[in-house]
Structure formats: C-alpha cells, structure tokens
Amino acid sequence: MLKFEGFGREKVKKIIYIIVIIGSIGICFLGIRSNMDQEYQRKVDYAKSTIKNETAKVKRIDKQIQQLYQDDQEDFLMEPIDEEIVKNIERDIRTLKTEAVDFGLKETDFSNEFVEVIQGEQELSTKMADIEYKRAIQKKIVEHIVEAPVDWSVSSPDDIVIKETASNAVISQIHNEITKNESGWDKAMVACLNEMEAQVKQYTELKQSITAMSQDGVLTSSATMENFLLAISQLELIKNETLKQELSDQIDVIDGLLEKQALGVIATTGQEEVLPSE
C-alpha cells in the first residue's frame, strides 16, 4: 500500500512538472506573440508616419523638377542643367517607399495608404523620362551644329549653322525620334532640324553642280557661264565656313579652267585641245 502511494506521488510530481513546463512554454509563446504583435504595430505606426513624409517628399521632388524648366509650362528646359542635380532627383525617386514590403508589412494590411505615393512616384518618373528625352534630342542636334542655342525657346532657325558631320541620314534619324506633338519644344526642334536639312541639301546640290563642271581637270558641257555664275551666287548661302571654303576652292579651279578656255588654251570634254594661234 505504501509502495503504491509512493508511486502515485511520483507520478503526480511528474505530471505537475509537465504542467509547469507546458505552462512556461505557453507563457513564453504568448510573450513572444505579444512582442511580435507590438513589433508589427510599431512597423505600422512607422509606415504611417513615413508615408506622410514620402508624400511631402514627392511634392519636394516635383518642385525640384519644375526648376529644371524655364517656366511652369514645363516645356523648354533650363540651360545648362547641372548633371549632379538630375542624378540626385533620380536617386530620390528611386528611394521612395511605395510598397508595404518596404516596411516589412503585408500588402493586404497597407495597400490603400500607398496610393498617393505610388501615383506621385509614377508621375515623377514620367517627368524625368521626358526631361532625359529632351536632353538627349538636344544633345544629338548640338553634336551637328556649330554653336548650341543659348535659349531653345527663342532660337531662330536662321541662327543654326550645320557642322561638316551633318547629313541627311543623321537628321532623319533625329526627326524620327521626336514625338512631333503640338508643344513649343517639339515645334522648335522640328524647325531646327528642317533648317539643318535645308543646309545639307543646299551644300550637297551645290557640290554636285560644281563637280559636274569638270572631270579629271577638264571642263564638261555643264561648265557654262550661266551655271558658273549661279554656283557663285549660291556659294554665299552656305553658312558653314569650312564647307564654303571647300566649294570656293573648287569654284576657283573651274574659274581657272574657264579662263584658259576663253583664251583658247583648253577645250571642254569631247573636244580636242586648242592652242592659241601665234
């Protein structure tokens, strides 16, 4: 009987120990759960506070972008634009917190609160893409003109002078990259490219006309006085001084050949050379 009672007491002790251990584990689990809930709530509170800051940040970045334009119309860019400012703005846009996961939260718990920031981030990204697009187009144009306009908004096509690198292929490619909407900037770029295109055509046609007047140092049938005088008059329309000098040198050669022809020293292509009579 005593042995049975002793055995019962030992069993009861074990049960009590188990209950205590289970209770301790339960308390720890509840404590951990409570801490997790508190931590999550802190994240929620932090996210709500940060969203307000991000909304204010969106407005601040938008003002910085506006300063890259000449006016509130956000059409023509300021010149020049500091590259470092552009990089800073792009970095600020990239670092905007627009998702619940940025705060370690569930999307289902925090989706609506980010709508304004998400829309703001998208609008800012679109504006910066437009700025980069305009800068790229202007840079490509400047690469093929002698001097960049100080102010694209008031620049006249008459002020444009092409470089020797300008060609129909290059100009056509830039033309195709322009959206060609009704904005003042688009119209200004198209007008500039049209002027460049006209100058390239003018130079090319005049060069062909001059080249056609002689072949291997001999005048051709195209070397008439009318064509020669026309070439001289058109030469004054060439704005690029290097190209003008190139054509001028060729005209001087034609002039010399015409002078010799007038003296009877040479003939045009297809005729025998005529020597002056003694």
Would you kindly provide a brief summary of this structure?
With 278 residues, this protein is mainly alpha-helical. The protein contains eight helices and two strands.
Written overview of the protein:
The chain has 278 residues and is mainly alpha-helical. Helices cover 65% and strands 1% of the residues. The protein is rod-shaped, with a radius of gyration of 40 Å. The protein has helices at 2-66, 83-94, 107-110, 115-142, 168-177, 184-211, 225-235, 241-262; strands at 214-215, 218-219. The chain has a two-stranded antiparallel ribbon. It has a domain at 11-142. It contains eight helices and two strands. This is MapZ extracellular domain-containing protein. Keywords: Membrane, Transmembrane, Transmembrane helix. The chain crosses the membrane at residues 15-32. It comes from Enterococcus rotai.
Secondary-structure topology with pairs:
Elements lengths: L1 H65 L16 H12 L12 H4 L4 H28 L25 H10 L6 H28 L2 E2 L2 E2 L5 H11 L5 H22 L16
Antiparallel strand pairs: 1-2
Task: Summarize this structure as a short list of keywords or feature phrases.
disordered C terminus, two-stranded antiparallel ribbon, 8 helices, MapZ extracellular domain-containing protein, transmembrane helix, mainly alpha, 278 residues
